[in-house]
């Protein structure tokens, strides 16, 4: 009788576990369907062209491409499409530095000149590795130099050449006293990694992060190298898409030259939960908020979801932007949730909004749906007809039944005004600015 009772209990337990597994799978499918609907609508409105991945409880529930990886050949984006990451690169550079700290080869309070003896002593002896990692060094960012992109960004440089010309400026403030986002700092970190290890930056990356994490579709994006399934970068213009301006990839270097896929970035996220890549102590340092809530290659903040609940969710995240590409990685470590958005059409202005919507789905909160851009609509009418027709269209749409489908926010018409100024249509720009007022 005891045996029969035990078997009965086991059968009941198995039935309950099976039911729970079924319910969990059904919930995941329901969330995936809502996510797909949301991403598809952003793509339909021309606000997302890339690949998206969402994970819940450490498991992928959605991974899909939207739009084109190559518009000239109509090649669609997919989860294994390789995108330039821009500044998401910084978290990998920071990880390599922390690994070298663990090995005793670098000290976080060590100075730049301790590792780069040729760097100018009057500034390099003041700036620490910690300052470089947290954007508190005071070294001017080369991407902020006047005319840099127009005059310099197409030219190849060696690491040493570039540092001497563009990453050795006079300090803008006393190190550690302010936060100013600084690509020069992470460029210097790449040089320090090479100096300390005696190996190229990209080789150190492959050996110490990509290979251990199983990231086979990630690497340093050299323009001349044939890279399978690499997305082409595009710029949005008032008349449609165009190929993004060329950028020599020796320039972003350790601050922004990597490529990856949404699937590989999921592997990266998972690796950060264990200690294969970094020790618990190093991760504590990486995710510790400093000035402006910046850690080492990550930002610690909260994302407020849409009304009425306005739930504030703690996140660890970082965005990236580079010619033709916008990127975002958002980690919700308490629930092992992840959102990765990689876009190859410079639609970065929408990525945070998309991520907020996806988070609302994950947390079972109301979703603020995407809206059509009234800016795109008005600008197209100006280009096809005239500004008078565009203003009439704007007023008609705002008063009409479909008004709720459009974003009439202040920045929409501002954007039209600035674009018209760039196109030297100053009179039209004035009319649009008056309409906005």
Structure summary:
The protein contains 17 helices and 15 strands. With 437 residues, the chain is of the alpha+beta class. The chain has two domains: 279 residues, DD-peptidase/beta-lactamase superfamily (Beta-lactamase); 65 residues, no CATH class.
Task: Give structural notes.
With 437 residues, the protein is of the alpha+beta class. The protein has two domains: 84-362, DD-peptidase/beta-lactamase superfamily (Beta-lactamase, 3-Layer(aba) Sandwich), CATH 3.40.710.10; 372-436, no CATH class. The chain has 17 helices and 15 strands. Strands 2-1-13-12-11-10 form a six-stranded antiparallel beta sheet, with helices on both faces. Strands 5-9-6 form a three-stranded antiparallel beta sheet. Strands 3-4 form a two-stranded antiparallel ribbon. Strand 1 and strand 2 form a beta hairpin. Helix 2 (89-102) crosses helix 8 and helix 14 packs parallel to helix 16.
